[in-house]
């Protein structure tokens, strides 16, 4: 158990370091190293906790997306990685959503309205990215909906993931907020941690790996 605590502590240290790197404008290599390390460390923690393979796959695919987005010309590739990650999340959390009560349809309807409004606002400015962004954002919204049926922690995680990517979309349309990069990564890191840790409460996919 001590090793599990150390792995989670390592994730939190890397996350804090990455946010500091963004805030102070440190060299690009520091940005890349800390960002690329985030999801693999979190995936390792989930694995050692006996977490579901779908969640681990989602985190590793997200790592691929994080890395791809650091290179010019690989935006669509990065979006593809994250789209695949959302498919994993939706598949995993969808089981809980299917078993949830009638309130789930209120949540789904609310997120559907948010998705439609966001796409309507961004559509004129997206250009050639219209279809990829529409499809990806639908997968993202599906993660938010499905995770809400699993529990409060994962529901908040799904909502934060949506907020993080909405901030990225604002950047695409040249509408960045102050400390934009820090806000994007703070919401993204929080989202992934809440989704990952929240999935452990019910996953019981396999016994924890001995430490």
UniProtKB/TrEMBL annotation:
A Gene Ontology term for the protein's cellular component: membrane
Protein localization: Membrane
Signal peptide: none
Single GO MF descriptor: hydrolase activity
Membrane topology: Multi-pass membrane protein
Keyword Cell inner membrane on entry: no
InterPro entries: TMEM86B-like (IPR012506)
Domain of life where this protein originates: Bacteria
Family matches, as Pfam families: YhhN
Bilayer-spanning residue ranges: 74-93, 105-123, 155-173, 179-196
Entry keywords, A to Z: Membrane, Transmembrane, Transmembrane helix
Listed PANTHER family: GH04784P (PTHR31885:SF6)
Family: Belongs to the TMEM86 family.
Name under which the protein is recorded: Putative membrane protein YhhN
């Amino acid at each position: 158990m001590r090793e599990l605590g150390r792995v989670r502590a390592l994730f939190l240290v890397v996350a804090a370091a990455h946010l500091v790197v963004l805030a102070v404008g440190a060299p690009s290599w520091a940005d890349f190293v800390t960002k690329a390390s985030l999801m693999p460390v979190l995936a390792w923690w989930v694995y050692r906790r006996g977490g579901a393979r779908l969640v681990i796959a989602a985190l590793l695919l997200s790592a691929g997306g994080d890395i791809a987005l650091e290179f010019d010309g690989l935006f669509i590739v990065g979006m593809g990685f994250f789209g695949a990650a959302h498919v994993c999340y939706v598949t995993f959390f969808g089981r809980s959503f299917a078993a949830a009560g009638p309130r789930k349809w209120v949540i789904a309807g609310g997120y559907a309205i948010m998705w439609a409004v966001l796409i309507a606002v961004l559509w004129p400015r997206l250009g050639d990215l219209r279809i990829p962004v529409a499809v990806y954002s639908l997968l993202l919204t599906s993660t938010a909906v499905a995770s809400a049926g699993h529990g409060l922690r994962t529901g908040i995680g799904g909502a934060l993931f949506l907020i993080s990517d909405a901030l990225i979309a604002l950047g695409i349309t040249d509408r960045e907020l102050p400390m934009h990069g820090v806000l994007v990564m703070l919401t993204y890191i929080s989202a992934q941690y809440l989704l990952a840790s929240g999935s452990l409460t019910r996953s019981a996919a396999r016994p924890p790996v001995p430490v």
